């Protein structure tokens, strides 16, 4: 599965306003890339960027020293914000039922997704999306 077409909303590049720690971002990718920075001022530089521009900028920043230890939790925080703050996207994620969500890609990302050519990858983004989907199911029951 790739996060395109009917599943484009699963992509971090999908335009969806989210707020993380008081900063409004135009998409989850910008929020995630901002998490690489410790300073509030640096994070704010990502707020108005498209996903593609945020990704490019994220490659140029000095990574916070604990980045490798916190990057999965940072992604989880951003993905939660995206779906808990946007009811229409939450409904679409819930509509995927129990379908496995795999971020298949052609650019060889085997950490966040699965390389479409080799079928190999850890699929951390897909796993986080499925976790958030389960949280939304529980939250909807409780509401």
* Structural class assignment: mainly alpha
Q: Any idea what the shape is?
A: globular
What count of helical segments does DSSP give?
Answer: 6
> Fraction of residues in helices?
40-55%
Taking pLDDT < 50 over at least 5 consecutive residues as the criterion, the unreliable ranges are none
SSE order: EEHHHHHEEH
Q: What is the name of the CATH architecture? A: Orthogonal Bundle
What is the CATH homology-level superfamily?
A: YbiA-like
Tally of discrete structural domains: 1
Number of strands: 4
* Measured distance between first and last alpha carbons: 31 Å
Q: What value does the Rg take, in angstroms?
A: 15 Å
Beta strand %: 5-15%
Tell me the major beta sheet.
2 strands, antiparallel
Average pLDDT metric: 95
Q: How do the strands line up in the largest sheet?
A: 1-2
Instruction: Say what the CATH topology is.
Output: Tetracycline Repressor, domain 2
Q: Please report the first level of CATH classification, the CATH class.
A: Mainly Alpha
Tell me what you see in this structure.
This protein has 143 residues and is mainly alpha-helical. It has one domain (5-142): YbiA-like (Tetracycline Repressor, domain 2, Orthogonal Bundle). The chain contains 6 helices and 4 strands, in the order E-E-H-H-H-H-H-E-E-H. The protein has helices at residues 28-34, 40-44, 51-58, 67-84, 87-94, 124-142, and strands at residues 15-20, 23-27, 104-105, 114-115. A two-stranded antiparallel sheet has the order 1-2. It has a two-stranded parallel ribbon with strand order 3-4. Strand 1 and strand 2 (23-27) form a beta hairpin. Helix 1 (28-34) runs parallel beside helix 3 (51-58), helix 1 packs antiparallel against helix 4 and helix 4 (67-84) packs across helix 6 (124-142).
